[in-house]
Amino acid sequence: MGSFVVQRLSQTLFVVLAAALTCFVLMRYVGDPVNNMVGQAASLADREAMRRNLGLDDPVILQFLRFLRDIVTGDLGISYRFGVPVSKLLLDRLPATLELSICAMLVAACLGLPLGVWTALHRRSALSQVLLVLSLVGVALPTFIIGIVLILIFSVWLGWLPSFGRGAIVPLGPHWTTGLLTVSGLKALVLPSITLGLFQMTLIMRLVRAEMLEVLRTDYIRFARARGLPMRTINYDHALRNTLIPVITIVGLQFGNIFAFSIIVETVFQWPGLGLLVIQSIQFADVPLLASYLVLIALGFALINLTVDILYAAIDPRVRAGLTVSRAGS
Amino acid sequence: MTAVPDIERPPGWFESDLLHDFLRSPVAVAAACVCLVLLALALGADFIAPYNTNDPASANVIDARLPPGSVGMMGGHFLLGTDPQGRDMLSAIIYGLRASLIVGISSVLLAAAVGITLGLFCGYFGGIADVIIMRVADVQLSFPTILIALLIDGVTRTVVERATHDMLAVPVLVIAIAASYWVQYARTVRGLVLVERDKEYVLAAKVTGVAPLRILATHIQPNIMGPVLVIATINLALAILAEATLSFLGVGVPPTKPSLGSLVRIGNEFLFSGDWWISIFPGAMLVSLSLSVSLLGDWLRDALDPKLRDAW
Question: Considering the entire predicted model, what is its pTM?
Fold first, then answer.
């Protein structure tokens, strides 16, 4: 187990370093940092002095190490577009994205799980066939189309729910603002979280159904039936429990995907989160912000994958011994 | 001349199980019909579309945002209404369909070319290159497509100037999408090559002194194309969606040559004025395209190899 963890850790470290290197190259070589700072009138000597002061004359390795130190200490540079520290911008936007992502995951899990169980238990009923076809359509529907249709129906035509923004937000501690405590904040959350959660819901539903069907075929379920246990106990106590292990890991992995898809949802609903910030920064070529986001995302994904891998290995000894094919392929 | 000995030939297309299977699946036939119609629309856009929306002269701002079925000031008929610049929606959708298909198909081809090549080499030769490439593939697989494409596009935008970028937009988009899909081909092909490598026909070729590259290209490659075709079809649907999503986010094709995604983006701004047709019609077209292609892919997967069902 120890060597497995070390191996995965080194891989994670490698990914994060590669992302950091990309960002470093971007920040260092796209445009001239000195030109971005000094005025037109600065003399050549001034520029040289500035170059020396900024440490741009040092060996590249040293500059890269300094860049890493800055990242670790939370100094991500100044945004070209806003003129404020990137770390502050990202921290300001993080709560909105996290709240949206968690709500979407809740929507997906709370609907997907029961639907998956139901369609597995009532395989032949007409309703589960309909649900399966609908879930196939749900996969083919792009997220932004779902969002637009929901806005059209519930905001434009019916006028029930707001279509943009977070509603009223209240501060919760020094770094956190929440929309979960006001009526307008909750109302604003409904459409975006459904839009973001819908794809994940169909995924969870199909996954739970497939796993459940698999488990229901196993011997211990057959024997439980033979023992005359009530169906309710067999289905929910024996079968569902064993279904949940792989489902939970996949759901954990999907959290990264939700984070990525939140970029789309935030654009559709003008949700003031990280995704909207990044999309706008791409259009403005705001290099420091983009680079920091890249490092942050790489770090986030690497950590999620690391956690899932280690959890997998803890649950399943075959993974540790390298006997099974990599999880990513399934 | 002696008669050619009667060798057992593989069955032709018309007697194949594939065609039989196809005709028995109503979903597949319907999906194929929709695909064909859409493909014909895209190919014949210049003849079918009532107006040429790529030509700025065809738009008249007086006719902007007319609802479906209206007649314009200049006497134009607009079956699906007009967009904010007075362009005919029906024509814009047909040309947009073409743009979306071009980007989708090119990125699938690029991803397949790169992925198959790398997969063949990794599988056949192995070694340190194999380990490194497959590690990169593993890592990349854990990042969502949209994110990879977005970052590639964002980085390009910061590196090149705006005017150059508009010109480069479509190739960059194709590369960005292909960059996240090559992994599937590489992994699948590598796995298949590992199986084929030790089969007798390959060993026979080796013994007779056929060069390794020739073995890969003419012996192994034709034998592994079935699963590759399945991946390509399913990827086409995904690539079309990825293109549409990126264009919707405003980082895809430039607004002068609209694709389905950028049409939806334009329409999104006018949703609140009640002008639903500007975004809903291109959206519906996009969904029918991606749905029919992915249904076709699903059928192909089941028909060619039921075992692949679990690989996805």
Answer: 0.80
